[in-house]
């Protein structure tokens, strides 16, 4: 079975633009439109956030979008319903990102099965630690051909980065600095040193940089050191501007690419 | 059956360290060092000296004559309310701040519900000359004003948590986010037996002094170290963990954990986690927690800010599922009645949290020769405005 994430990185080893959005935000049924608009505007890879009441790794923007999405009635079941026919409309790689508790309540195997069925390619669960994944869930993810994407940070020791690399498939999510999502201070010099250190490790999997990437400058800076970068909070903010969803998406992505 | 944490950080299926990678180095540093540091002779020396001369330990085990008479049994109160800062919380903050210093940390963060843990943290930071930031839910800031004032007086910065239900759960989220953003110089002093491994075990060890003393004190007073019942209220579960700790492997001692039922267990406004909760992940730990079918964490309710938490420590989840501890609960109203009863029978004004433990005395059906030890986790000064209002003592 082909995995769209692997194909993407094989075809496009540099400059990958990945965008995160919270499912069910701004409106419950925007999921499909957001996906299709992002693809139309040339985004390469999408992370669909499954909203959680207590998103520990997220800053105020994604917290707020999650609260709205939950109020709108977003659930994992609802999201799978919305994605039911998505593969008839687009082949853009899709990664689901969320916290472990809602997935546990849905049932991890049922979740993997359903994700595979609708055509999801990968999963990010920041609070599922590596060893727990390897012990309990790795077989399941492999059975359903889902890429498991792990985070690394500037504080992750080299040996652990190698271990994470060996259990990953797809790509490695390089958190740019010690922070929750949504910081816009730019990429510190320390981050550059860390990016270069990781680049020098010649890992098996491509790295994509996320957290704090919010404009053309930070996107391009990140792309110098990795296969691409992920924009999250800045995009979620852009969706709150006045104007139609498609206009907001178009102008935001243009501001990054052009 | 073991009731102690295993080498992977679990109590049965509960516990573990479900933290994002950003926190892994911090939690791992703590995991690798906590037992070694706690066992060092100079650590123990410093800890014991502070517990004795600064906190005022051992706290008395007081035989409560009029309460005993009323319930026709032998009731002892473990007087954690007499500790410096007015609750058991300081047993833990002294231990953790000494650990933080040995790990070379300069900045201390904490979450707080009732403000007792925040005050205890601010106190030890003043003592050690460390910067202190306390996260507290906006609602709790209002209902526990005296403790907010104390923290400020002690030099701590109190930061309002304005997300979610604006109570303890959200204060904990904010503290964890702070730690993610400040991974190198900051130490997070968690206030209960919750959070990722090794916190539940570490906090339980620092609170275990409670049951260590109860054993010695009962031997002296009753000629036995083993009471019939040990009763404690449970928010996150630290005072209960401390009171139970040295009795976990004494099956003849009945352990009674009392949760806050709020306006009634099934009223929709409750914090009785063992009954209302399901297996899941909260604040980095697998445990029982109150949540929706979809796994969204729900807002608990209790009149007592210290019990207003949607989860319970993994040790307690294990004690509940294994049946080792018996879980009871008390409503707001029952707790308030217990406050007045203790005040009028023994001249002791308890904290609202502790009053939940007192409230189940009748239900224990203890016999005249039974020994009931109730952990009086804190004093009621911080709750006076609630008491005045409720009992109408504020009317002219
Ligand atoms: C006096 C008192 N008792 C009990 C608690 C509940 O915490 P735990 O269950 O960790 O003992 C608190 C928490 O603030 C408290 O202040």
From TrEMBL, chain A:
CDD domains: Tryptophan_synthase_alpha
UniProt superkingdom: Bacteria
Active site positions, chain numbering: 47 (proton acceptor), 58 (proton acceptor)
Annotated pathway: Amino-acid biosynthesis; L-tryptophan biosynthesis; L-tryptophan from chorismate: step 5/5
UniProt entry keywords in alphabetical sequence: Amino-acid biosynthesis, Aromatic amino acid biosynthesis, Lyase, Tryptophan biosynthesis
Pfam families assigned to the protein according to its UniProt record, in alphabetical order: Trp_syntA
Family matches, as PROSITE patterns: TRP_SYNTHASE_ALPHA
EC identifiers of the protein: 4.2.1.20
Catalytic activity reported: (1S,2R)-1-C-(indol-3-yl)glycerol 3-phosphate + L-serine = D-glyceraldehyde 3-phosphate + L-tryptophan + H2O
Gene3D superfamilies: Aldolase class I
InterPro entries xref list: Aldolase_TIM, RibuloseP-bd_barrel, Trp_synthase_alpha_AS, Trp_synthase_suA
GO cellular component: cytosol
Gene Ontology terms, MF aspect: tryptophan synthase activity
Protein family per UniProt: Belongs to the TrpA family.
Function per UniProt: The alpha subunit is responsible for the aldol cleavage of indoleglycerol phosphate to indole and glyceraldehyde 3-phosphate.
NCBIfam families recorded: trpA
Quaternary state and interactors: Tetramer of two alpha and two beta chains.
Name of the protein described by the UniProt record: Tryptophan synthase alpha chain
Native source species: Pontibacter flavimaris
Taxonomic lineage from the root: Bacteria, Pseudomonadati, Bacteroidota, Cytophagia, Cytophagales
TrEMBL record, chain B:
InterPro entries: Trp_synth_b_CS, Trp_synth_beta, Trp_synth_beta/beta-like, TrpB-like_PALP, TrpB-like_PALP_sf
Record function comment: The beta subunit is responsible for the synthesis of L-tryptophan from indole and L-serine.
Superkingdom per UniProt: Bacteria
Protein name per UniProt: Tryptophan synthase beta chain
Cellular component terms per the entry's GO annotation: cytoplasm
Keyword Coiled coil recorded: no
Organismal lineage: Bacteria, Pseudomonadati, Bacteroidota, Cytophagia, Cytophagales
Reactions this protein catalyses: (1S,2R)-1-C-(indol-3-yl)glycerol 3-phosphate + L-serine = D-glyceraldehyde 3-phosphate + L-tryptophan + H2O
Assigned protein family: Belongs to the TrpB family.
NCBIfam families: trpB (TIGR00263)
Gene Ontology molecular function terms on file: tryptophan synthase activity
EC number: 4.2.1.20
Cofactor(s) needed: pyridoxal 5'-phosphate
Pathway assignment: Amino-acid biosynthesis; L-tryptophan biosynthesis; L-tryptophan from chorismate: step 5/5
UniProt keyword list: Amino-acid biosynthesis, Aromatic amino acid biosynthesis, Lyase, Pyridoxal phosphate, Tryptophan biosynthesis
Organism the protein comes from: Pontibacter flavimaris
N6-(pyridoxal phosphate)lysine carried by residues: 89
């Amino acid at each position: 079975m082909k995995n769209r994430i692997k194909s993407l990185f094989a075809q496009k080893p540099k400059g990958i633009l990945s965008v995160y959005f919270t499912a069910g935000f701004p409106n419950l049924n925007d999921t499909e439109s957001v996906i299709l608009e992002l693809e139309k505007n040339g985004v390469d890879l999408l992370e669909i956030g499954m909203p959680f009441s207590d998103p520990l790794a997220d800053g105020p923007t994604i917290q707020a979008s999650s609260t709205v999405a939950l109020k709108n009635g977003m659930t994992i079941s609802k999201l799978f319903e919305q994605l039911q026919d998505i593969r008839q409309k687009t082949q853009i790689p899709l990664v689901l990102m969320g916290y472990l508790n809602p997935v546990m309540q849905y049932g991890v195997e049922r979740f993997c099965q359903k994700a595979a069925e609708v055509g999801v390619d990968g999963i990010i669960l920041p609070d599922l630690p590596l060893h727990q994944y390897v012990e309990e869930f790795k077989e399941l993810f492999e059975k359903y051909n889902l890429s498991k994407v792990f985070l690394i940070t500037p504080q992750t020791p080299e040996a652990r980065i190698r271990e994470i690399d060996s259990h990953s498939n797809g790509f490695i999510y390089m958190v740019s600095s010690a922070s929750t999502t949504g910081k816009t201070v730019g990429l510190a010099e320390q981050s550059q040193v860390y990016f270069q250190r990781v680049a020098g490790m010649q890992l098996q999997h491509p790295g994509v940089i996320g957290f704090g990437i919010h404009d053309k400058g930070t996107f391009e800076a990140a792309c110098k050191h990795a296969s691409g970068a992920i924009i999250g909070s800045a995009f979620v903010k852009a969706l709150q501007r006045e104007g139609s969803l498609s206009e907001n998406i178009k102008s935001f992505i243009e501001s990054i690419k052009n | 059956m073991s009731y102690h944490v295993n080498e992977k950080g679990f109590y049965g299926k509960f516990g573990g360290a479900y933290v994002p990678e950003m926190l892994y180095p911090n939690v791992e540093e703590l995991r690798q060092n906590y037992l070694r540091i706690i066992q060092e002779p100079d650590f123990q020396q410093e800890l014991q000296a502070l517990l004795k001369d600064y906190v005022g330990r051992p706290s008395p085990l007081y035989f409560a004559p009029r309460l005993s008479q009323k319930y026709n049994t032998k009731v002892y109160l473990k007087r954690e309310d007499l500790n410096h800062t007015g609750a058991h919380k300081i047993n833990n903050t002294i231990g953790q701040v000494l650990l933080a210093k040995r790990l070379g940390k300069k900045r201390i963060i904490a979450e707080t519900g009732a403000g007792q843990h925040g005050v205890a943290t601010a106190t030890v930071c003043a003592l050690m000359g460390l910067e202190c930031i306390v996260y507290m839910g906006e609602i709790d800031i209002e209902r526990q004003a005296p403790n907010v004032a104390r923290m400020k007086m002690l030099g701590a910065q109190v930061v309002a948590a304005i997300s979610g239900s604006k109570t303890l759960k959200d204060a904990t989220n904010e503290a964890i986010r702070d730690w993610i953003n400040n991974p190198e110089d900051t130490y997070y002093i968690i206030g209960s037996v919750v959070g990722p491994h090794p916190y539940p075990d570490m906090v339980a060890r620092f609170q275990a002094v409670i049951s260590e003393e109860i054993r010695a004190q009962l031997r002296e007073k009753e000629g036995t170290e083993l009471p019939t019942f040990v009763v404690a209220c449970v928010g996150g579960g630290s005072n209960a963990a401390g009171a139970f700790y040295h009795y976990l492997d004494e099956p003849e001692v009945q352990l009674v954990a009392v949760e806050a039922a709020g306006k009634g267990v099934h009223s929709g406004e409750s914090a009785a986690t063992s009954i209302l909760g399901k297996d899941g992940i909260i604040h980095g730990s697998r445990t029982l927690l109150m949540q929706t079918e979809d796994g969204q964490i729900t807002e608990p309710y209790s009149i007592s800010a210290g019990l207003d938490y949607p989860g319970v420590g993994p040790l307690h989840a294990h004690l509940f599922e294994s049946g080792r501890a018996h879980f009871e609960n008390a409503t707001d109203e029952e707790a308030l009645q217990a406050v007045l009863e203790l005040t009028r029978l023994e001249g002791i004004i308890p904290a609202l949290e502790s009053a939940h433990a007192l409230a189940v005395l009748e239900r224990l059906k203890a016999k005249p020769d039974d020994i009931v030890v109730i952990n009086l986790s804190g004093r009621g000064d911080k709750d006076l405005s609630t008491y005045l209002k409720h009992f109408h003592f504020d009317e002219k």
